[in-house]
């Protein structure tokens, strides 16, 4: 079998590494940082622990499949999965509050009727029916199959069956998520509920296609899950599964160049001063600048497109599908709070405090002068997990705000986020022991992505601008995995990218996706 070099130890790259090792390949992972997980990190201080990346796991079936296909122990024997119930609380601009149960259609609709008034549940329920139709149409090409060579079909075809909207003498159908909200939901609070799913990925609902309706549908259909000890425990489990399959990891080892000859991958070149880098007996590639050369039959790159382009000097991700690299749409500002006093019983794991100024927030995120919104939407995470606190008399809380990539964070921005979170956490200021601020610069340092940009899942329509580059490239033997390649960002999508890359390497171009 072949020798495979994997660049980066993010979730998609590790998923590919484990699957390829099972297929008999010799796999070596080169990671510039000193640990695994990519953006899935942990911060610890004074007995408190926090996820600094994703805090919840949608569609755990992706990782269940990974563990079934790569070893004897299933996922549930490696981590403790807990279904979060209620799914989320919401605090709207007008003070209305609603708590939505997890994976219960009837419960969600009843809760919306009670909180927002009769008819709200019916409108949301009808929307979910249409969102399911969009999911059924888009699921395989946008999640489970390699990107189609004729991807323009996905770019032009809107899978969401919007309701005809009559205005004066014209009949139109919603083309954007904002139009879906305005014409089909007809309530500013339901609009906020819908648009919060797009904002979480840095997508402007005024320009995001109606196909983004699949984002809330995924949460509704598959439930919301938490990993005891934090999502970092999932990264640990995937890393340990790789080790069980004899995947070799070299941390603190940046790859300086991907080496190809006559359009075919021949290896990677490592920095000579890499702390744990080691060459092979084959020596440096003739004509190279003198770094440590290691042969490889295949290279799997789990890095952003601009990083990969720098490694191969020229648009490698513009592969067989010819999709241009997609720019990062947003980053995140995260506040980690250590609170005195235990977590009250019945508290929602996740509460979304919606902006009191929708237009102002969208202008600051997507306008000509981007910055941290003055009235941001704040996601408050309050896990019920003793592993994250020193004792039962303390609580660990994380606040997350979508911000533009590279946004500079001032003290007044932090204060506004704390003020907004106080609407969901009574007595927040009085309970606060200390807080840590994680900015886009921290994400950039952890992931190597300029501005700390965070990728969004691939979406259909919109002329293809929300698709991601293919997993294949113009260089034979070079593949792309992780959130910046098809099928895009998010834990389940990253895991699927690893499965797609492994299938393409093991089965070749005829691979048609997971079954």
| Count of helix runs | 16
- Beta-strand fraction estimate: 15-25%
Given helix and strand content, the structural type is alpha+beta
Looking at how many chains there are and whether they match, the oligomeric state comes to single chain
Helix content, binned percent:
25-40%
List the helices and strands and how they pair.
Layout: E1 3-7, H1 11-22, E2 26-31, E3 42-45, E4 48-51, E5 57-58, H2 61-70, H3 75-78, E6 81-83, E7 88-91, E8 97-100, H4 105-116, H5 120-144, H6 152-156, E9 165-167, E10 170-172, H7 177-185, H8 188-199, H9 214-222, E11 224-227, H10 232-244, E12 248-251, E13 255-261, E14 264-270, E15 292-295, E16 298-301, H11 305-312, E17 331-340, E18 350-353, H12 358-366, E19 378-381, E20 394-403, H13 411-421, H14 428-431, E21 432-438, H15 440-447, E22 478-480, H16 491-507
Parallel strand pairs: 1-2, 1-16, 2-12, 7-18, 16-22
Antiparallel strand pairs: 3-4, 5-11, 6-11, 7-8, 9-10, 13-14, 14-15, 17-20, 17-21, 18-19, 19-20
Helix pairs in contact: 1-10, 1-16, 2-16, 4-5, 5-9, 7-8
């Amino acid at each position: 079998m072949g020798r495979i070099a994997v660049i980066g130890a993010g979730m998609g790259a590790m998923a590919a590494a484990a699957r390829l090792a099972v297929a008999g390949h010799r796999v070596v992972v080169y990671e510039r940082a000193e640990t695994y997980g990519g953006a899935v990190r942990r911060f610890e201080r004074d007995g408190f622990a926090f996820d600094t990346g994703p805090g919840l796991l949608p569609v755990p079936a992706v990782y269940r499949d990974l563990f079934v296909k790569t070893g004897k122990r299933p996922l549930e024997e490696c981590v403790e999965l807990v279904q979060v119930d209620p799914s989320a609380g919401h605090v709207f601009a007008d003070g209305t509050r609603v708590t939505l149960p997890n994976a219960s259609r009837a419960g969600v609709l009843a809760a919306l009727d009670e909180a927002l008034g009769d008819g709200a549940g019916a409108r949301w329920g009808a929307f979910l029916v249409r969102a399911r139709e969009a999911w059924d149409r888009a699921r395989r090409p946008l999640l489970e199959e390699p990107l189609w060579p004729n991807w323009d079909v996905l770019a032009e075809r809107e899978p969401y069956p919007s309701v005809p909207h009559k205005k004066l003498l014209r009949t139109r159908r919603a083309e954007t998520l904002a139009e879906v909200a305005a014409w089909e939901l007809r309530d500013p609070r339901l609009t906020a509920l819908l648009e919060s799913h797009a904002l979480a990925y840095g997508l402007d609902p005024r320009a995001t296609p109606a196909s983004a309706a699949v984002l809330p549908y995924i949460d509704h259909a598959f439930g919301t899950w938490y990993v005891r000890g934090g999502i970092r425990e999932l990264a640990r489990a995937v890393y340990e599964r790789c080790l069980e399959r004899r995947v070799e990891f070299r941390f603190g080892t940046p790859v300086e160049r991907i080496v190809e000859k006559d359009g075919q991958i021949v290896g990677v070149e490592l920095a000579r001063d890499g702390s744990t880098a080691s060459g092979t007996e084959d020596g440096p590639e003739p004509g190279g600048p003198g770094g440590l050369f290691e042969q490889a039959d295949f290279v799997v790159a789990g890095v952003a497109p601009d990083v990969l382009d720098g490694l191969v000097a020229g648009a490698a991700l513009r592969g067989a599908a010819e999709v241009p690299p997609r720019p990062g749409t947003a980053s995140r500002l995260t506040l980690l709070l250590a609170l005195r006093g235990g977590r009250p019983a019945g508290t929602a794991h996740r509460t979304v405090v919606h902006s009191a100024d929708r237009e102002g927030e969208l202008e600051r995120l997507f306008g000509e002068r981007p910055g941290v919104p003055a009235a941001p939407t704040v996601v408050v995470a309050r896990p019920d997990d003793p592993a994250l606190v020193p004792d039962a008399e303390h609580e660990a809380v994380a606040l997350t705000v979508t911000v533009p990539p590279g946004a500079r964070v001032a003290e007044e921005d932090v204060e506004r986020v704390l003020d907004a979170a106080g609407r969901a956490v009574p007595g927040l200021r009085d309970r606060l022991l200390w807080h840590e601020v994680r900015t886009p610069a921290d994400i950039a340092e952890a992931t190597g992505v300029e501005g700390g940009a965070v990728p969004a899942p691939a979406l259909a329509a919109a002329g293809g601008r929300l698709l991601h580059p293919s997993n294949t490239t113009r260089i034979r033997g070079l593949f792309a995995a992780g959130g910046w390649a098809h099928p895009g960002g998010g834990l389940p999508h990253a895991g699927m990218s690893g499965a797609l890359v492994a299938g393409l390497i093991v089965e070749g171009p005829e691979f048609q996706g997971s079954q």
